[in-house]
Specification:
The protein is mainly alpha-helical and 185 residues long. It has 2 domains: 12-29 and 43-61, no CATH class; 75-183, 3 helical TM bundles of succinate and fumarate reductases, CATH 1.20.1300.10. The chain has helices at residues 17-22, 47-60, 76-107, 113-121, 125-153, 160-183, and strands spanning 4-6, 29-31. It has a two-stranded antiparallel sheet with strand order 1-2. The chain starts with a strand and ends with a helix. The relative contact order is 0.08. It is found in: Membrane. It comes from Pyronema omphalodes (strain CBS 100304). One of its GO terms (molecular function) is metal ion binding.
Length: 185
């Protein structure tokens, strides 16, 4: 069985006359070979007209169609975005640290564990708490909200009330985890 593509124009906004003929959206239908064969309409254009056609078509496209599928009223939208942001931040910082750790030895800069512990131990208490909090907060949020996402992936906890309760639970767990990590030693 052979197939071919048939096209037909859709409703379009009014454009300049050469462009209005050229700007044709296509709907493709797969049909059998029993339908009489017709060639799709072709239009010869100059490179300038083709460029103007491309610009006109791009103006009709949505800027970010993937964002239109989300309902902004859902409470999980920002939680999902922040989980991704914290994950990228933590992995980026980890990569930077390991690159620095592996290259400083060849440059003669001391960045071993004993040196880092001595430098960190010599900092004022407020700076230590701030540094620990800046590292622990994204880690704890990413960890607990990741578990929340795994629960959602199983199909549970998706009602509005459950989303709100799990958000509060994640917040409490993050604060407790950050407090525990910052207060530890």
């Amino acid at each position: 069985m052979s197939f071919r593509i048939i096209t037909r124009p859709l409703c379009l906004p009014k454009l300049a006359s050469p462009l209005s003929k050229a700007l044709v959206s296509q709907i493709r239908f797969a049909t059998s070979s029993s339908v009489p064969k017709r060639s799709p309409p072709l239009l010869k254009t100059t490179s300038t007209e083709a460029r103007q056609l491309l610009i006109a078509q791009r103006k009709l496209r949505p800027i970010a169609p993937h964002l239109t599928v989300y309902d902004s009223g859902q409470t999980w939208f920002s939680a999902s975005a922040w989980t991704r942001i914290t994950g990228v931040t933590l992995s980026g910082l980890t990569y930077l640290f390991f690159i620095a750790y592996s290259t400083t030895s060849t440059l003669g800069i001391p960045l071993d564990s004993a040196t880092m512990a001595a430098v960190f131990g010599g900092l004022p208490t407020a700076v230590k708490v701030g540094v620990k909090t800046l590292v622990a907060a994204p880690f704890a949020y990413h960890f607990w909200n990741g578990i929340r996402h795994l629960v959602w992936d199983s199909g549970r906890g998706l009602s509005k009330a459950q989303l709100g309760r799990s958000g509060v639970l994640v917040g409490v767990l993050v604060v407790g985890t950050v407090g525990g990590l910052v207060g530890w030693a």
